[in-house]
Amino acid sequence: MTEQGLPNMIDITKLLADQSSLTILTFLMDGRFHTVHEIAKVATIKDQTASYHLKRFYNEGWLDYYKRGKFVYYQLSSLDIAHLIEQLMVISPKKPTQSYHQRVALNKIAYCRSCYNHMAGKVGVDCYDYLINSGFLVGYQNELQLTSEGQELFKSLGIDISKEKKDANFIKPCLDWTERRFHLSGRLGRLLLDTCLAEGLVKRNSEDRHLTVTSKGEMMWDELNKNRRVSCDFVE
Fold first, then answer.
1. pLDDT confidence of 236, banded at 50, 70, 90?
2. Side-chain half-sphere of 218: how many Cα atoms within 13 Å?
3. SS in 3 state form for the chain?
4. Going by fewer Cβ within 10 Å, which terminus of the chain is more open, N or C?
């Protein structure tokens, strides 16, 4: 039997030492399944090149796949992988934008986006701050808890947390790479994003993982802000 030694971080860093690989991983941060062709198009590489990178990530346990007919769909395998990518973005130096299109795309991503299965960017950070400042969440970083008022808030949004809150990953903060502050992660973050999508408060976009806050979402948050006197700016 072969004894387990130290983690082989060199092989992992080799996986990341390629722009196409990084583009693929950041695209998959939306938490959804995507076909090889969709992924290749975003990374501006050929389908077979994308398949090569995807298989390498799959072999390391970073991706799951689902095959239906002739199509193979890939997604990130876990929240841990998403957190790793997000933290790498936090500590990485920023490249200057080269065009107006890049600046517009970056501004959309920085304002509101999906981070695996929760809401990130300025909107996500504002939501997290709102929950903390309003007394719905108490504690510090990984020791966060929902107060009784917080439970009532999520219940009013149609989110049943009676079974979920026993999960160790129920409430997790995630350091946002654009805002350098926390947004809500964990299962509660996922439930919140799912509800916002289902209720038409935010909507996904096909070209990348930025989220558009709808007029309905803006109105709901404006009403909450009036009641709690906490600022949280949303735009269409």
1. very low
2. 8
3. CCCCCCCCHHHHHHHHCCHHHHHHHHHHHHCCCEEHHHHHHHHCCCHHHHHHHHHHHHHCCCEEEEEECCEEEEEECCHHHHHHHHHHHHHCCCCCCCCHHHHHHHHHHHHCEEECCEEEHHHHHHHHHHHHHCCCEECCHHHCEECHHHHHHHHHCCCCCCCHHHCCCCCEEEECCCCCCEEEEHHHHHHHHHHHHHCCCEECCCCCCECEECHHHHHHHHHHHHHHCCCCCCCC
4. N
Worst-scoring range by mean pLDDT, 71-75, 90-94, 125-129, 202-206? Answer: 90-94
Cβ atoms within 10 Å of 177's Cβ, excluding its own: 20
- Give per-residue pLDDT as tens, 166-213: 666 788 888 888 888 899 988 899 899 999 999 999 999 877 788 998
- Per-residue burial over 113-149, b = 16 or more CB atoms within 10 Å of its CB, e = otherwise: bbbbbbbbbbbbbbbbbbbbebebbeeeeeebebeee
